[in-house]
Amino acid sequence: MPRPDLELIRQRYTFACGYCGVSEVSAGGLLTVDHYRPLAADGDESLANLIYACIRCNQHKYTYWPTEEDANLGLRVLHPLRDILSHHYRLNPQTGRLEPLTETGRFHITLLHLNRPRLVRHRLAQQLREVMEGKLALLERQIHELEETITAQERYISALEEQID
Ligand SMILES: [Zn+2]
Fold this sequence. Notes:
The structure is a single chain. By secondary structure, this protein is mainly α. The protein has a domain at 6-115. The chain has six helices and four strands. It has helices at 6-12, 24-27, 55-61, 68-72, 103-111, 117-164, and strands spanning 32-35, 50-53, 89-92, 97-100. Strands 1-2 form a two-stranded antiparallel ribbon. Strands 3-4 form a two-stranded antiparallel ribbon. The longest helix is centred in the last third of the chain and has 48 residues, at 117-164. It is elongated, with a radius of gyration of 25 Å. The protein binds zinc ion.
């Protein structure tokens, strides 16, 4: 099976790592392609098996594939598009750390080192940026409203002045 176009994989993962969410822009270049089920464990080159991943996540995951015993215990890597990630872990907005909600989530976070310090800092910075952007948008709306109020008042004053004349 020929490998699908890299462009298609990048689009499918919106140009960011399927595991940790770091974007190409933040990483400063193209990311890598991970075989969800490794080739060594009979994985293939189908689109569903190819995950756009940053080099760190790809290295941490490496060739892990659950043994039957692991699978029975729910110890596996979550698939970014097939699993509902929010069932397995959540982001603590105060600390920037991912907190497991299931044993699978705990395993996934640990195996991929999803609370590595740089990533946690990156998440916190990202959140701060979003808060600031929200505040900026609010200020811009308020300025716009004030401008409209001023225009209306100027019109009112002009009307009054015409009456006086
Ligand atoms: Zn990653």
